[in-house]
Fold:
Amino acid sequence: MSKVVLEVKNLTKIFSGTFSLKKMKRGKSTVAVDNISFNIHEGEIMGLLGANGAGKTTTTQMLLGTTEKSKGKIKFFGKDFDKHRQSILQEVNYASAYTQLPRQMTVYENLLVYAKMYQVEYPKKRIAMLLEQFEMEDYRNKDIKSLSAGQLTRIILTKAFINFPRVLLLDEPTASLDPDIATSVRKFLLKQQKKYGVAMLFTSHNMAEVAEMCDRVVFLRKGKVVAEDTPEGLAKTIKHCSLRLLVGDGLKRLKVFAEGRNYQIKVKEREAEIMIKEEDVASFLNKLAKHDIKYSEISIDKPTLEDYFLQMSGEGKK
Amino acid sequence: MNRARIGALILRHLYNFKHRTDRWFDAFYWPLMDILLWGLTSIYIREASADMPNLVMILLTGLVFWQAVWRSQYEITTNLLEEMWSKNLVSLFATPLSVYEWMMGVVLLGIVKMFITLSFSFLLVFFMYQVNVFKIGWLLLPLIGLLLMSGWYIGFIVSGIIVRYGTRIQTLAWSGVYLLAPFSAIYYPVKSLPLWAQKVAKFVPTSYVFEGMRTVLFEGKMDLMMLVKSAGLSIIYLIFGGMFFVWMFNKSRKIGLSSVE
Structure:
């Protein structure tokens, strides 16, 4: 097993309520992150998933020290973050779809400032190489304000790689990118992971992306870790698959038949979608034949990480 | 012209006024400051009208010296605001940059920019009004140094409030320093202030600097005790201002720096 580069133990964040002058008392405290623990190994990409407000961004911000933790321990490369913040951050970087860069400065000026912040040797060479990797060489001397959202995201990713990070915290890094650019960014990230063993903590709302990128996923709900597994492992916890049939004759009978057996069924024009356990599919189709229900097309969609996400988020709302 | 739309627009700005403390500040603070500062200056001019040539020199030198205080505090506060407006604060403090390094950076930047502003102002008053600020002589250096320190402590206190409460009180970046203006006796002597204000002025380091500047211009010399008093107060306030900024910055980290951007 490779080395642990990030160790999070019992991490907790409680936001105190604000004082209300009207009520003359402090509001209720909110537990945003509740006693979570996880490790990330060298070269591993770990996904941090959860619905809005689950505690993903707060966790990321605590790992960077820009939000103070209430309790718990954070260790990067075996060193305590509280005691070695500066030396740790020298080897860590961060990109988020929600941050920006000074708008009136050019791409190059911004990147040079960050290169100097991290004391990068040969900054010009590093910037040129990264701009080429992210296909942004033509924008080197353009003002940040003139960039589109997708171009800005690529520059923020360029900034994230400027210091040869060993750990990268990526908060929805491909949000607002065109699909082709998002694909090339994902390829670049995977290449960095393989070539340099860069470990990444990855949050995204694109479940297909998480499934493609992440070796392991931690699922947060209301600040707590509710599951931790590979993306496939999490998807497999959903027992039902989706059976779609384009029904020719017997649509009403199919509905009665499925509902009579407590299968969830949705009908749209001639298409029926039945949620059914994978092992029951064969016998179900057999029975349809016996009931003379005819269909011309059939597809079976196995559960995905997205289904898992929807199920878990739905349970959270309940 | 549609009355409903005009009404809606007024309503939009009234809502803004309700939620933005800085707009309240603008409504009351600036008139108060202007009336205080220029009212006191007018009284002084009325009483000292026999000495008009010196008065022009005093007013202009005061104006130029005030630039040093304003510029050095403005540099600190606007540098912070720039990061907040650009949503760059989190990215910046996610690097190894420490809060002390940030403070040192803005102070050094302030010195450079103040030097440029003052040089320009000195030349401007010389060529336009034939007022030579260098008449003050070697005392110019400690006097400017003390004004710079005052700008820094005000800058750190104001920045501390902004970093904790966010851009909704950004108007403090421009106006905070003017709170000291009436008590700094920029254009008039401390003795022309009301008695209660004279007591306040004793605790304001810039009042000694402007008072000293006037005695140098009138008498060609200055009581060095004034410099010592100003330096003593400035050092105490600067230590307090710096500590206050760090304390507020850490309080802001408790709620998350991203929440104040």
The CA atoms of residues 90 and 118 of chain A lie 6 Å apart. Residues 179-196 of chain A form the longest helix (18 residues).
